[in-house]
């Protein structure tokens, strides 16, 4: 089976697999030897990861290899969220897998650390195929995508992989994959020119929200040729990924362990693979009811709130869906992009003024409403009629609103620094009076990354404060009449 077919099968319609107790995987077994990586690819959630960096204990490597083999697995890959050549024990783990009886061992690397010495070590240990992930075919674009100027050395390392095969007569396969973004989808021809005579196959994938951690791909990186709205996924039925901590995950790109279904330090691989947590998720996939899981974000191309399958193993990360790192890199490179517009509001009583502000903001980009918490409102206004969750439900369903985030204080600094919006939209009423100082602070903060403030006129004749006063006055009159 060639590499392109392997990629296709991961999201092909394979109805024979779709059951709560599918056959144990023969292939698609990955060991995350380490979650450390020396690159910061633009489309990769590693750049946002808060999970502790570590590497798998040797005894867990051996245990997982032996258990999977006994259950029928015959192929194993030594990578997941990290760069495998950062692990000095990589050759001995490959050798161990071959000694156990694995028929096919493989790895994926960005190639920057794949020096001739390290290549010889893994090939001599019995590696059957090596894949270089090269996500742009020329130096300047490569540095932008990968976050490091390693293109020339990666090409030299790839050439040596081929040279060593020619010298030794070994039969290992050599592959290159390119994850295509809107910046590189027109560069496919360059790959063949550069690598066609070196590798056995070049495979392209259009960038997608792998693992559910990168919803910003939809509006910042997605290829123009990609019109997919639903992504079939076979991983819960035909793949094993053991994390560096020794947990069984549904997804090899599980950066914060949100898809853990079992702890192999406590239960066997078989118990975890056929356990209740995995069955619950498989049922969700079969019935297409994935609400509340990060899988829903990947399968249905959204960024709905998600909770980990086993919270005790996940790393809390409030910025999983924060796109500022990717957006700022695109901006710094001078490319056009979908701007983020921050609109602060209390929104206790929605009126035409709110709608007008949102319309004007949405004409500038994607609207993030910074919705004041109940405590923030109480600091300068009477008690809100609706609590935060009620107001959030209303606001997030308004046309033109893309995100709603909580603003805990009347001061905007915390959210501005966290999300780094390109523009903040606020009515002109804060130019004078007690909010003038807050306004100037916001302008100064936004200027740090080239952001700005847009101040549309307030809608005349409408005011939440006036509405509330009228209601209170009316209530008082009714009480007096009684």
Summary tags:
alpha/beta, 482 residues, 37% helix, globular
Describe, in plain words, how this protein is organized in 3D:
This protein is of the alpha/beta class and 482 residues long. 37% of the residues lie in helices and 14% in strands. It contains 19 helices and 14 strands. The chain has helices spanning 3-9, 58-70, 90-100, 116-125, 139-146, 151-168, 188-195, 217-220, 235-238, 269-273, 276-287, 294-299, 324-333, 352-362, 374-378, 388-395, 413-419, 436-447, 464-481; strands spanning 29-31, 75-77, 104-109, 129-133, 173-180, 201-206, 240-242, 247-249, 260-263, 340-345, 366-372, 401-407, 423-425, 452-454. The strands form 3 sheets. Strands 2-3-4-5-6 form a 5-stranded parallel sheet, covered by helices on one side. Strands 12-11-10-13-14 form a 5-stranded parallel sheet, sandwiched between helices. α2 (58-70) packs parallel to α3 (90-100) and α3 (90-100) packs parallel to α4. The N and C termini lie far apart (85 Å).
- Main pleated-sheet profile: 5 strands, parallel
Give the proportion of residues in helices: 25-40%
Rg (C-alpha, Å): 26 Å
The shape, in one word, is globular
* Number of helices in the DSSP assignment: 19
List the strand order in the largest sheet.
2-3-4-5-6
Query: Oligomeric status of the shown chains?
Result: single chain
Mean pLDDT: 93
End-to-end distance = 85 Å
Q: Could you tell me the number of beta strands?
A: 14
List the uncertain runs. Answer: none
